[in-house]
Specification:
It is a single chain. With 655 residues, the protein is α/β, with parallel strands linked by helices. The protein is 49% helix and 13% strand. Strands 3-4-2-5-10-1-11 form a seven-stranded parallel sheet, sandwiched between helices. The longest helix has 22 residues. It is globular, with a radius of gyration of 27 Å.
């Protein structure tokens, strides 16, 4: 293997081809640790602070290893960034000819069968679906990949995509007439032939458990698995190692059954009637609960008296539909597929209604949205399941993120993921945080659980927004607080005559809001969980990040409450062992939005006085970047005045 010190040096191959390259001791240290883990087929947990350059630190030794590598990251957006930006940069630096591939879940690719069937059927729920579907058809006719992310001019969230893709339940597989030209199969074939394959965590875990998305075929021949954004793994694993059934799935099944029966079993009207009964039963189950959102365990559902009968009626309608589909399944591949889907749904529904198994404790809970109801069975712990997967393969596993440990301690992550023996590495950010940032915790704010807290947060934030001239993210731990803050901030801006653009999560797609924020240069963006991580906003446009509360998980959340109860039952200390470490990692993620480059400057304002007043506050403070700390507004004012002075001098010198 070539000398990593030379590769990462200021006059090495990386510097020669990558603009703005800087040699960083932290990046080299991580690259060497990754290289050693790959050679030893070991497990490495690597926390790399913002600005380390962790992506190249794992990509370059992985490319040099000569084996097959699977890389998984947190979201599809990060997956695309890794494949289209970071991997080409690493290959240029190494002049590497390795073959690479991008693999996504099947719902990201146009399905010829469903596209053609729905174009012919012409039954849509929204007025513009037909026009968008025609555009999707034109895209599919010329695209080599069929990846919806590459369909220019067609919104990724357009409802029409629902009619143009398949999912695990309704894919016909090798029985499909379009199997040879299938975009999903082409993507899987490319992944099998490639030496480096980029996936995302949802795909990785769905396949690890369901073995249906193409990753399972890759792993046996794989030498190295790299899991980036690994702080998300435990929650993603719980989602896929558990079970979920939604009324939306049932409505899809009923709708597909009606459409297929009308064409392929027109002489058997009983099937269409059964599908209509299933549609009504699914809707009635949702109507058994109020319109306001509900989140409750099975034990808490006693207050809703209509749902047991509604669930029984749904189960009966599903059984009748499945029985009639079985009688017609041999007539057509689509009818056979509907029957198989009905059987799968029956199995999940039966499993959800069973009492918990002591060997695999789980929490059965229910939640509603405006139009749907979801039945969940979530495992209380995924460590045993994930740890078994990790231990059964003789390959290197690299888990990395900017936020894996709590003060350098990886116990929380290792416990949640069932990781035994592993090497660990913490490399600090190269940024000069005491000079680049201020951590401001205002005095005299009320406790977070008291009435009027959000009003107090906004009131405390306004002087900071005035000093910074906008240029801020205001991040909230709940959507309710976000909506209340929106009303308060709008009124305050109007009263003061401020013209800072106000952008609010939900008013437009996330990427559009971020683009408008960057372009405005003085905007204030209000967001919640989706803006806490995975947002890279370098430069002066973002100079303040305001966080309302410490991000403790809500104790009334059914899964959190069940995990706390389980820990107490086992003699553990759930606050210190589970809740506090989780909050520390989440807080570090939110704080990480502020300083993204060596030239960024800014203020992190946390409006939760528990950070300063409670004994556990020190652990949370120590998890944050080592910014200058203050509880005084005038320190914030002097910081921005100094930055303005530096900026003015730089502008004068340039002139």
């Amino acid at each position: 293997m070539p000398d990593l010190k030379h590769l990462f040096s200021s006059d090495g191959p990386c510097a020669a081809v990558l603009p703005g390259w800087r040699a960083r001791a932290q990046q080299l240290a991580m690259a060497e640790a990754v290289g050693q883990a790959i050679r030893n087929h070991g497990v490495l947990l690597a926390e790399a602070g913002t600005g380390t350059g962790k992506t190249l630190a794992y990509l370059i030794p992985a490319l040099l290893s000569g084996g097959k590598v699977v890389i998984s990251t947190g979201t599809k957006a990060l997956q695309d960034q890794l494949f289209h930006r970071d991997l080409p940069a690493a290959r240029r630096a190494l002049k590497s000819p390795v073959k690479v591939a991008l693999l996504k879940g099947r719902a990201n690719y146009v399905c010829h069968h469903h596209l053609q069937r729905n174009l012919t059927d012409g039954r849509f729920t929204q007025r513009d679906d037909a026009a968008w579907l025609q555009k999707i058809a034109r895209f599919a006719a010329t695209s080599a990949s069929g990846d919806r992310a590459e369909a220019e001019g067609i919104p990724e969230d357009a409802n029409a995509w629902h009619y143009a893709v398949s999912n695990r339940e309704n894919c016909l597989g090798s029985e499909c007439a379009h199997f040879r030209e299938c975009f999903v199969m082409a993507a899987r074939k490319a992944a099998l032939e490639a030496e480096v394959v980029v996936v995302n965590h949802h795909l990785f875990f769905a396949d690890l458990w369901l073995k249906d998305e193409g990753v399972a075929e890759l792993l046996p021949a794989c030498n190295t698995v790299i899991l980036d954004e690994a702080h998300q793994l435990a929650e993603t694993a719980a989602q896929f190692f558990g079970e979920t059934l939604s009324t939306a799935q049932l409505l899809d099944l009923a709708g597909d059954t009606k459409r297929v029966a009308a064409v392929k079993a027109g002489d058997f009207p009983a099937l269409r009637r059964a599908a209509e009964d299933l549609t009504k039963a699914a809707r009635d189950l949702r109507l058994a609960f109020p319109q306001t959102p509900v989140k409750a365990t099975v034990a808490d559902l006693v207050r809703y008296d209509k749902w047991p009968d509604a669930l029984k009626a749904l189960s009966s309608a599903l059984d009748e539909t499945a029985t009639l589909l079985e009688s017609q399944a041999e007539r057509d591949a689509d009818l056979k597929n509907c029957h198989e889907r009905a059987q799968a749904v029956q199995a999940v529904l039966a499993s959800w209604q069973r009492d918990d198994e002591p060997a695999n404790p789980r929490v059965r809970w229910l939640e509603t949205t405006l139009s749907s109801l979801l039945l969940h069975a979530t495992p209380l712990a995924v460590g045993e399941m994930f740890g078994a997967r990790l231990a059964e393969r003789a390959q290197a596993w690299i888990l990395t993120s900017a936020t894996l440990s709590v003060g350098g301690d990886f116990t929380h992550l290792k416990t949640r993921l069932g990781i035994g023996e592993a090497d660990t590495l913490c490399v600090d950010s190269p940024f000069d945080y005491p000079r680049q940032g201020v951590l401001y915790v205002p005095q005299n704010l009320p406790a977070p659980n008291t009435p009027g807290f959000t009003e107090a947060v906004v009131e405390a934030a306004l002087p900071v927004l005035e000093i910074s001239r906008g240029r801020a993210f205001m991040l909230f731990t709940s959507l309710r607080a976000l909506e209340k803050a929106r009303t308060l901030v709008e009124a305050a801006f109007k009263f003061r005559g401020w013209d800072y653009p106000l952008l609010v999560q939900g008013d437009a797609p996330k990427n559009e809001l971020l683009a408008r924020f960057q372009q405005a240069g003085n905007a204030v963006l209000l967001g919640s969980q989706s803006f806490w991580e995975g947002v890279d906003m370098p430069g002066e446009a973002l100079s303040v990040v305001i966080i309302d509360k410490l991000p403790f998980q809500p104790p009334d959340d059914p899964v959190v409450a069940a995990r706390i109860a389980q820990a107490e039952k086992n003699g553990g200390k759930p606050f210190m062992d589970y809740q506090l470490p989780h909050a520390a990692i989440s807080l570090k993620q939110g704080a990480g939005r502020l300083i993204r480059t060596e030239t960024d400057r800014g203020v992190l304002m946390i409006c939760d006085t528990r950070l300063a007043d409670k004994p556990y506050g020190r652990l949370l403070l120590n998890a944050l970047p080592a910014m200058t700390r203050t509880r005084k507004l005038d320190v914030v004012a002097r910081f921005f005045a100094a930055q303005e002075s530096v900026f003015t001098k730089a502008s004068t010198s340039a002139a």
